[in-house]
Amino acid sequence: MEEYGLLGKKLSHSFSPAIHALLGNYSYSLIELEEDQLADFMKTNTYKGFNVTIPYKEKVIPYLADLSALAADIGSVNTVIRLKDGTLLGDNTDAWGFSKLLGDSRSYAGCKALVLGSGGSSKTVQAVLRRLEIEVQVVSRRGKDNYDSLSRHYDANLIINTTPLGMYPHNDTAPLSLSQFRQCHLVIDLIYNPYRTKLLQQADELEIEGRGGLLMLAAQAQKASELWGISQKGMDSSFEITEKLSRDMRNLALIGMPGSGKTSLAKALHSLTGRQVFDSDELIEEKTGKRTQDIIEQEGIKIFRALETDVIRDLSKLSGAIIATGGGVVTQPQNLSLLLQNSRIIWIKRDADLLSTYDRPLSRSGGVKALYQQRKTLYASWSERAFENIDINRTAKEIAEEML
User: Fold this and answer.
1) For 3-92+229-246, which CATH class?
2) Could you count the other beta carbons within 10 Å of the beta carbon of residue 117?
3) Which of these is catalytic: 9, 10, 43, 57?
4) What is the Cα–Cα distance from 217 to 100, expressed in whole angstroms?
5) In the prediction, which pLDDT does 2 show?
6) What is the number of other CB atoms lying within 10 angstroms of the CB of residue 182?
């Protein structure tokens, strides 16, 4: 079978194999190389075609026999095609993908775009924007337009992040603060893992439209598959692929009162879907060697909440898992930001009279109904959807059918 793949340096975060599996029945692998291995690979590989990502989009060019007009114009390659004579042609399908992500260009007439980063992806974004006659300002770590001189560009209408800042596994970072960009109406982050980066979460908080890079990834992959002669020319299933990947790759995080059945539901969902299950309370107990109720009673609730947030921070980096959280996870605002990175949040509801208080010190001390009154607004505001849990198996089936 002819082989295809993705060339890059750090690829553990990549969704590309999953996308290409949806595009056709062909072998697609991850080609993870250090920079001193690039020359040998480019001279000796037998791949029929491959995609290229950070940091090799420009570095592969000297090893290619020719470039498409678009790739030559941009100065960046993300798709390589082996020609009939065995030589390699460089092309750029990122431009196609970014155009798809940007959408209707007519709405951007007269806008100013701030492009973060100056690498290969940035060059592609700049080329697309300039062809649309959008004013482009590039910000990088060096030069006169850097992150210390952002005030000159607070009038930007569009902000596009092409840097890896905020990408898995460094989910808690962002390239800048959006608070001063009061004329900005669209933020695009080319990162697709996590699904909602810190930058996009800022945009949500400021009521600015935000778009992640998953659609761009799907669209450029489809175009690459077409250039390799696999996908039908002119076919476009990028939106359908993006929707499927969004459902497959995002976690389901279960929140709700202690005793509402989150752990049991998570296990039932595992039986239905095969997804891995992680329980934050169980992970705290594994980490400390103590029962959660003992930590609360002996060391205090503040210590427990700090441990819980540390565990949620790790869980938030997962993809495609079922996460059962503790009942009080909603009492710490930072946990919401962490969960939203890669999860759809579901509120598991249960009648307060049916909630057990066994081994639940907070429920016993404050009373279940009083605790519910304190938290119900948080559960509602954090969750995308609520499910009433009367029967575990029936509720798990409803969740799987609606959310997965």
Assistant:
1) alpha beta
2) 21
3) 57
4) 10
5) 87
6) 10
49-83 per-residue burial string, b: 16 or more CB within 10 A, e: under 16: bbbbbbebbebbbebbeebbebbeebbbbbbbbbe
Peptide bond connecting 17 to the previous residue in cis, omega within 30 degrees of 0: no
Q: What is the CATH class of 250-403?
A: alpha beta
**Could you tell me the two tokens for 71?**
């790739």
What's the start-to-end Cα distance of the chain, in Å? 32
Give the domain ranges of the chain.
3-92+229-246, 96-212, 250-403
DSSP conformation class of 326 = P
Q: With bands split at pLDDT 50, 70 and 90, how would you rate the model's confidence at 352?
A: confident
Rg (CA), the chain: 24
Q: Could you confirm whether 287 is annotated as catalytic?
A: no
CA distance linking residue 212 with residue 199, whole number of Å? 10
Architecture of the domain made up of 96-212: 3-Layer(aba) Sandwich (3.40)
Strand partners, 89: 66, 81
Q: For residue 138, how many C-alpha atoms fall within 13 Å in the half-sphere facing its CB?
A: 19
- Give residue-wise pLDDT tens across range 144-166: 888 989 999 999 999 999 999 99
